[in-house]
Structures are given as C-alpha cells and as structure tokens.
Amino acid sequence: MDAAATRACMKELDNAADSERLVEVLTDLDAKFSPTEQLLRETRIGVAVNKLRSHSDPRVAALVKKMVASWREKVQMQKQKKQRELDASPKPKPGAAANASTKSKTNATGGKIDANEKRDWKSDGVDTNIYSDPVRNSCVQVTYNALVVQSTHPPSEVLKAAKDVEQAVFAAERSTSSAYRNKMRSLFVNLKDPKNPTLREHVVTGRISGERLRTLKPQEMANDELKKQVEEIEKQNLFNAQSAQEQRSVTDRFTCGKCKEKKVSYYQMQTRSADEPLTTFCTCENCGNRWKFS
Question: Are strands 279-284 and 290-293 parallel, antiparallel or unpaired?
Fold first, then answer.
C-alpha cells in the first residue's frame, strides 16, 4: 500500500458512519499496510489510527492498539536492521586509530600521512583554481578542508571528492546563488565534524557520491551519537504527533481544583507506550488553571 492508497484509507476512516465500517476499514488496513518510518511520517496514518484507540466500541479500540503496537515494533526492527548493517561496514576511527585502515596511504610527495596532522588545501599544495568563478573555487577549498579532517587519503583523492560535491550542488542550483552557498555551508559543517569520520570516509571513497550527499537530510548526515539521540526522540513521538488544539473539547465532567468551576477544556494525547492509557490535559476556562492525569 503506497502513500496515495494510505491517504485514501484515512479518508474512509474519517467518513466511516458506524463502528462496523470502522472495523472493516481498520481490518483491511491492518492486512495491506506495510509500515515504514518514511510512510508513517509522510501520511500521518499512525496519528489517524491512534486517535481511535479510546473509541467506545471495544472492537475498534482493541484493533487499533494491536495495529499501533505492531507498527511500532516493525519500524523499530527496521531501524535495528539498518543500524546492524551500518555497524557491520568498516568505520574509520578518529585519531591514530584511523591509520590502521589506511596504512599504505601516502601524501603527494610520497610520505605517509598522519591522521593527526592538521591539513588543508594550502598545506597539501592543492591547485583549486579550477573555475573562472572564485566563489566556486572557494567552495571547493572549504569542502577539501572539511574532508581532510583526520584523513590519511592522498590529496588527489580528496580533491576529486571535493570537486564532485561542489559540482553536484552547482548543477542543482545552476548558479552561485544564496541557495548554493547555504547548501555548501551546510555540507561543510556536517563534513568537518570530528565525530563524523564515517561520513567523510564514505564521501572520499565514493561510497556516497556528491549528488547523493547533496540530497541527504541533516539528520542523515549527523554523527552516530546525535543520530541515536534523534532516534530516541522520534521513537517517543512517532505515533504521538497530534496537535492538541485539534482534539480540544469543553466539558463539565471535570472540576477545577483551584476555582471549583466545571467549565474545563481538555484534549488527550498518547505520551507513553502504545498499551498505556491516554494522558488527559485539562485547562480551566474560568481561571486558566492547568493539570493532567492518565
């Protein structure tokens, strides 16, 4: 089931006239939908389904809980598989350890290159006077400087990669506009990160082409430590990203503990695991007092 079919299914959920129709649509969705993190984010089907977990019909609520738990598990397994594949690939390490994987690398004069050596395009004697446009030449220079951080690759390999990156961005923007410069600046920041040797290694060796690098999102270029932090946050928020304002209702079922009035607006949100009850957030319309419970 692609994004278009998923959105069509969401419309059917919204238009379902009764519980029987809801169960029918959810069952069909459960059978045909193969969740991926990208598809969940693109369509927000997880949010649409999760809103029904407190439905008055126990069949609907039970089916939704089962589906959400299953989707969460499958997405997590996909992430773990991807991480195992990344862990299995050779990774250069910062500092002296990087020399172990590149013992035979030499510089332009034939001497061995030390990964701890501070390098840039000037010290490596690289000719960056490639284009008639000084802006493009400057971008090749800064990209080169980023790629040689903790690197033992010879200047010729690094320059080739730097040119490939710059050419990909220039081809996309078709000029040295502000968009071109902003993109080059963003790539430079990610490439020069001392904690991100894997990204630099993949670019220099051609495993990640200049065109592929240009299309990567910032979170895809982030170092491993930051990626793990982002993944933890995304894991918590994947099925919980629903605007509070869209669910807010006013009721007299709750009493404000401050002014004792019963005019209270509230909304519910999933703040814990899928099998835990929704958290209810309340606001007194009289005095503005706020509280929550689950």
Answer: antiparallel
